[in-house]
Amino acid sequence: MWAGLLVASLSCYTLKLAGLSLPQRWLQDARVQRTVPMIPIALLAALVGTQTFSAGQHLALDVRAAALVVAIIAVVLRAPFLLVVAVASATAALLRLL
């Protein structure tokens, strides 16, 4: 277990060092400037999709999918982030209660 932890830590450090070692002119490229801010959004969307649709139980999948739909509706209506989380959580809780 410790060997795996050390390898993962070394890999993360090496990846971060590689990012810091990039030439400045590469980072000033217009494509990079447009793309980099979208990376966290894509990663978060992938995480939400994976966690929502990879359930072992069908009921849990339905509850999470319904909460995700409610959250998307709240985002489209431009609700504040905390309200989006609260509404989605309440939806999941109420559906699990039923």
Structure commentary:
The protein has 98 residues and is an all-alpha fold. The protein has a domain at 55-98. Helix content is 82%, strand content 0%. The chain has helices spanning 2-20, 24-27, 30-35, 39-53, 58-76, 81-97. Helix 5 (58-76) runs antiparallel to helix 6 (81-97). The mean pLDDT is 88.
Question: Which characteristics define this entry?
Answer:
98 residues
Q: Could you tell me the radius of gyration in angstroms?
A: 19 Å
Order of helices and strands: HHHHHH
What is the distance, rounded to the nearest whole angstrom, between the alpha carbons of the first and last residues? 41 Å
Low-confidence stretches: none
Q: How does the overall form come out from the CA principal axes?
A: flat
Annotation, overall tally of beta strands: 0
Query: Which class do the helix and strand fractions yield?
Result: mainly alpha
Largest sheet: none
Please give the count of helices. Answer: 6
**Overall pLDDT:** 88
Percent helix range: over 70%
* Strand proportion: under 5%
Topology, please?
Blueprint: H1 2-20, H2 24-27, H3 30-35, H4 39-53, H5 58-76, H6 81-97
A few lines on this structure:
The protein is an all-alpha fold and 98 residues long. Helix content is 82%, strand content 0%.
